[in-house]
Amino acid sequence: MNIFAKTIAAACVSASILALAAAAPAQAETVLRLDEVAVGELDPAKASDYADSILMFNVYDTLVLPAQGAPGLVPHLAKSWSADGNNHIFNLRDDVKFQSGNPMSADDVVFSLQRMQELGSGLSYLFANVESVEAVDEHTVMFVLKEPYAPFVSSMLRLPIVDKKLVMENLGAGDGEMGDWGQAYLSGNAAGTGAYKVSSHNPQQETVMAKNADYFLDIQDAAPDTVRLRYGLEPATVRTLIAQGEHDISSQWLPPEVLKALSKDGAQLLTESGGGGFYVKMNTTKAPLDDMECRLALSNAFDYGSAIKMIAVTDDVSQGSPATGAIPVGMLGANPSTDDLARDMDAAKRHLEACRYNPDDFNIEISWIAEVPLEERFALLMQANFNELGIKSEIKKMPWALFAEQVSKPENTPHISQLFVNAVTGDPDTLLYGMYDSKNAGTWQSPEYLNDADVDDLLEEGRVNTDVAAREKAYKALNARLMAIAPTIYGYDRQSVFAASDRVKVPALSDPSKAFGLDGMGFSFRLMEMQDKS
Amino acid sequence: MRRVMWILLSNPLSVIGLLLVGTVIFSAVFADFIAPFPSHRGAVVDFSNFNQPPHWPNIFGTDLVGRDLFSRILFAYRISLMLGVVVLAIAVPIGVTVGLAAGYLGGWVEFALMRLTDVFLSIPPLVLAMSVMGLLEPTLTNGMLAVTTMWWPWYARLVYNITRSESQEGYVLAAEIIGASRLHIMFREILPNCVPSIVTKMTLDLGFVILIASSLSFLGLGVQAPTPDLGSMVAEGGNYLPDSWWLTVFPSLAILIAVFGFNLLGDALRQILGGDT
Asked: Tell me, what's the ipTM?
């Protein structure tokens, strides 16, 4: 063949390849774009807030999962579990591989728990009661508790399983045999079994994740191929990006007015109830709030109706529903949803008269967390409400870091602190024990410094009793006691609301029968459906 | 005086400056009488009428807890002006004294005072004010303190330069020859010759002090709620753009008017008094 013929032949081959490529276009990848507040903590043993939970639930897996649309737990990495006194035994699946290709075994579970306890940050307090953990065989693991703890299995929702082999290969410098327990490595890399792998991670800016083709469960095709989770976007930026079709799901921290505007423009509103509430906490060690009657006066004067109006997004969707007591509706021990708390100025005045202090002698300090602008509005609402009772107050803006530091001493803790608190495992113990047990006073969750023997006893009863009916009775009694002594104004039961474009369907955040009832779990990307392939 | 007024009124920009400054001062002084809802400067909430666009009687709309924005802007002017006046009332005497002493006495006094001034001038003003506010509680008094800390060195530098050239003039030498005291020469002979420049700079600075104070409260270091403050209003409203535009646009315009007015007036005074700033 001469050179000319060769050239013609080569040109024909290239042309046919190009034609084939044009006839069958490769399927474009789908990208999901969402945002959360900084910082995105990738190390699962340090995960504590919402952004961390999103990362944790997608990059790692846990032994159990919350049931969708119902109370209770379902198997996940564990096939089954049983309890014998203080011993809890979990049988693991044998077909699970980490993203590294290493098989998952009981050793990894043991390592994950020890690592969590050793680092002592994030939600490790949930496992303080675990005396020991051992691998009975390759796929069986046993936890031994120091003392009975009824909701132990649900705390497994917060124990992500880490790839021991991979971490051991990447130990950093530190004291002892385990070095830094892989902290340096895991703060920037993933070592999980999860449905999404981490492609890149900058805790202040963005984490990019890609679908894990080897996941042990089937992931539907419609689930996003790539996820870009951005941190720290301004509400006005998110508002504009969604309207222009350049963003898919907002964080829950958008003010109600912005959500309202987005919904008017056609964005869908997604919701998640994670078993938590808005709590206005009163420092029970500081006069005049050390007198129960004064606290009751304030909690009766609080305008619950206006609070609900303030957080309404549309006629049907709101960032919360009326509170009925200390325990959010739907949780063990909660009052029925018909028992809405309401403002009662007559009762407020009665309680104020019974209070041993003269209101004129005090100036109540109402603090609000600088990072949560909505709280300033609640502070103004309270100032106006308390004014009507003749109680003077001043508003104090506090950055989170300053607040967290000041609450460690009762005398530095403001009279009133506003906090959003959630049950991290969905069980009332993880909501109430940290807030009201006298041993836990002086953390960001417990600026009340409550010291009440009845409350302590009932909290203990709820923890150790394994019988559900008995636990419910204990929590109902606890709820009643917390209403009677009013360490807190129970503002409203919280619901997270997210604005989303129509490119994505999120059944876990829009269909109550698919909802998990655990904060952050609704953001399991593998269960989301992208609507287009653009 | 008549000449001053004539020059002021013959320049359209000065007239605008005068009008704007007049409006700002009038609003601040008579806020109690002009504001349709004087009680809205304080602890008032009205959730039946919150986040409403401009309408009668809330001509600038209402804020996120239902307070009248127009009334709050009028009262915010009062706070801003008070801040400006107090800051300059403290910063100017300090700066002028330092500048006079350094410029006239010379030697180690000059070296010590002017290097100290340089240290303050070398730190970006907003950063210095933020550090002061970060150390102290964010209150109005501390806000004034923070802004004052960064303001006096500019007057020290200005007066120092003028004093250096004035101290070579014949009238100063004459005063020295007849045995006048140093204090007399500094404050009675040299200072009156610095006044035009100082007055011009003060007028210009009033606008900048308001701007810096607004920047501090925009960053969350200013006065506390419910006290109305222009910077905080802009910062808070920024989250609700573009839908609730009135929350940001009107307070921003209010800052613009004040700063623009004082600048125009300052420029006019510079022309008239021949100040060198």
From this structure: 0.72
